[in-house]
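**Reference record**
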Amino acid sequence: DPSLRDVVGRVLPLASHYVTIQSFVDSRAKFEYGLVNHALCAAIREMLKEYLVLIAQLEREFRNSAGRFTLQQLWYHAHLSLRTMGALGALVKSAARATHVEERQDPLNAMAGSELVLPLRAKGGGVLGKLAERMLQLSGDESTRRLYAHLLERASVPYFGMLDAWIRYGEIRDPYDEFMVQERREVLWDAPNLTYWERRYVLRDLAVPAFLEPLKMKILMAGKYLNVMRECGLPIADDVRLAELEQGADLEEGATRAVAKSEVMRALKGVRYLRSIEAAYNHANRTLLQMLLTDHQLHARLRSIKRYFLLDQSDFLTHFLDLAGDELKKPRQEVSLTKLQSLLELVLRTSAVAASDPFKEELRAELSRDRLVDGLLRVIGRTAEGADDDDVTFATNVLGNAAISEAGVSVPMAGIEAFSLDYRVSFPLSLIISRRAITKYQLLFRHLFQVKHVERLLCHVWQEHARGPAWRLRERARWNARVFALRSRMLWFVQQFAFYVCSEVIEPSWNQIERRLKEVTTVEQLMTYHLDYIDTCLKGCMLTNATLLKVGGGVWRYSDACTDVRRTTRRTTR
């Protein structure tokens, strides 16, 4: 009978949908699929339970009807469940298809052997993203949209529990690698510096649901800051305090406002979560910022670094060169670093500049193993190639390699070329004044130190010219005039260059960062402003242009020229 065949054809998909859904629930209920899949399966299982109750009721009706229960009656009672079961079947097929495609494409699965390695989209935030995507795609079908919204709300409970633990306590409670933030345990604790905090906690991009994408950095930073506060011994806000902060949380900020008004967050009733994110981020951010600026005197630290590394008041350097000049003339390998450190401490104790500086004890003498130009060119080359410019590699490439000439042969380096300063920075200031920042300060200092050294050499040449009797002979008047003119032009150039660097590059940049420090509102802004300040100084001093470094050679080559001039004039006047 065609009519009966048509009715049966409409009823049978219920059975196939049920088998598909039940298979999905059975497989995803395994522990390795994580808490989000478990919550999703629990919600689907409840719907299947309602479906089985309906089937049991229909079977009871069939058995008690004495043959009067027809296929039309079966269809009448079951057709309402067909839409729900069809939507669930489409969802699980889509999820299974995405999982299988990723498993084939993911080389980790082939490498894992018999051990199961799940794609990130098959669990955690990836599942929530898939549910949200399906809900938005079928938003025109109100009943299906409500179904997916219900599943999304139920499946997101464990995920938002992990989110809550992260933004409230800085803890990752994620046994199945489902959360958007992951802790990289292979990054070992050696020092609480910026590198550690950058690498220890990172985003797991495929586990970020699309509806939380605009807030992922806030979520990451909120937990990071809590861990920094805990390491510093600061108290973390309790639940009562956070509840008060949540009441006053502003959801009108750009990214937060967009998320709050999204259809997915409305379906999740997620405004409370957004308030928690905003409150936790703002509290951790304000507390850490206040600690850096007030308790640890960041502004005074930066001024101290500017005083020594950028030669803001360089009378201490003149005194130091008077005392350590003979030692610095030796080859680098023969220079006593202990003696240099002692002389530096002596100068700092007697200098008027350092007398009022409470942080002068953090300054240390250092001898670099690399020429300034070689180090700068190496850094510029690596940056251009897009290499990972992390703290350790950056410092190693600039300060840790032997000096190599263009011919590839090691060239002996004098102590004056290798001399540099170092500055000890404790945690949490090392988050702002990182090893990378100190390395850049060292590059600037060595550049300015060479300028001062060249100026000093030229002044010594003038003293020799003024004292030497051979320079007063009339028969050498024309030759003497040419030498005097050359020396004067060289000295004028060096002094003008030093004036340009200090007055036109460093001081405007310093004034700008001082203004920014008064207006800064987040720790990220503070980090950005500080690095921008150093990079601006490097660029203004022409230390980031490979062409200028290679073609011009820079002011540091004047020291060799001045030494040659002194040596030549001494031989000539004997």
Summary: The longest strand covers residues 363-367. The radius of gyration is 35 Å. The first helix runs from residue 2 to 28. Residues 298-310+372-388+423-572 form a domain with the Four Helix Bundle (Hemerythrin (Met), subunit A) fold (CATH 1.20.120.1900).
